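Q: I'm writing a short explainer about Sporulation sigma-E factor-processing peptidase for a general audience and would like to include a description of its predicted shape. Could you first generate the structure from this sequence?
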Amino acid sequence: MVGALYVVMMFVPQLSFLYTFLIKFGLSLIMLWIAFGFASLQSYLRHLGAFYMVNFAAAGGIIGFHYLVQNSGELFSGIWYTTSGGLSFELKVGFWFACITFFVVVFAFKAVQTTKRKTENRETLLGDVSVWIGSTKISCVGLLDTGNQLSDPLTRTPVMVMEAALWEAYLPQGWSKQLMEGEPDKLIMGLGAEEFDWQDRLRLVPYRGVNRGAAFMLALKPDMVRIELGGLEYVSSKVLIGLDGGTLSGDRAYRAIIHPALTEGEGTPKVHAGIAQEEALQQNTESSLVESGEAKTAG
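A: Of course. Here's the predicted structure. Afterward I'll give you a sentence or two in plain language.
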């Protein structure tokens, strides 16, 4: 209302002094105070910056679009010379044109800001994932999904989903394609006498997807998983790697879905975590060798 009343003043010649810079700026401060109050100076300055940013973006969009749709005749008809030889330009923008373009520019500006905010929020949930099975290491970028509660119903082991394409070189031929088609239980049943070094690491995890009934997900039991997120590292050995035959992200921003249980508790700074991870991996390798030796002796 205050802003609209100020526009009416332009029809009163005696009040032309109100259209100076200081009056305009002071009026904007009053409008912001009426709309948002004065909680703190920092908050007030943030509102002020947003106010002028939106207004300048809208005004610039209106003028830019106006020039875009003008032809050369309309453009040069607005240029005229003064008696002193100066060059001036007269800008004529229609009322309805300005109104329609204003809303278009504001909505476009809001859409860009919303997309940018979503991208920034998603980046805070992205982390580097490394998985070890024996001497094999698979790394990718993972997205922390706080709503993911997928776990093995028997052991309550959390399941971290990864694209099966990352493991294609280590899986039997054709498994990646068959996982995309579904029914992973048939892969295990048809494994038979085919040699697969990680056969004893295979698991079937039941789950219920969105808008679909119960199904099974093929999973691997790794030796260790390391997650780097927010400057901290989380190492876990109690985890299953679920293999998804499709693509988890259309823009390839991430290729794994991190279970929230894997980042619970206090993380370790990267330097210390790296040392702890190497020691734990070495211990797991030694334990595997010992178990293998005991099995051979018992045999």
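A: For your explainer, you could say: Confidence is low (pLDDT under 50) at residues 288-299.
Q: Perfect, that's easy to follow.
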